[in-house]
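Problem 12. The chain below contains 114 residues. Write out its predicted structure in token notation.
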Amino acid sequence: QVQLVESGGGLAQPGGSLRLSCEASGFNVAFSYYTMNWFREAPGKERELVATSAAASGDAKYSDPVKGRFTISRDNPKRTVYLEMNYLKPEDTAVYYCNTANVWGQGAQVTVSS
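Solution.
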């Protein structure tokens, strides 16, 4: 059974940092073959793509709101993708989802508040 399990998240103050992890299991081919994405969904808003780590190359792309503050990385032997979030803002508050193809994690709450 293909599965993505997120961990991390929680509460941070504005300007603070958090890290999310997403561990994959049940995939039939090497993890490096999968493009991995992080999405987020804030209350009352549509789910939006935040960051992407391309298959094979691992090249990263970011949405404009998080560019320069968030970093996506991956550890292929551990089948894990990370999202390092720095200089957090209240508008970063959302449920963050790990995704590849049509597989989604359960979501991790990130709340940025003083």
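Discussion. The chain has a mean pLDDT of 96. Students who got a different answer should revisit the alignment rule from Section 12.3.
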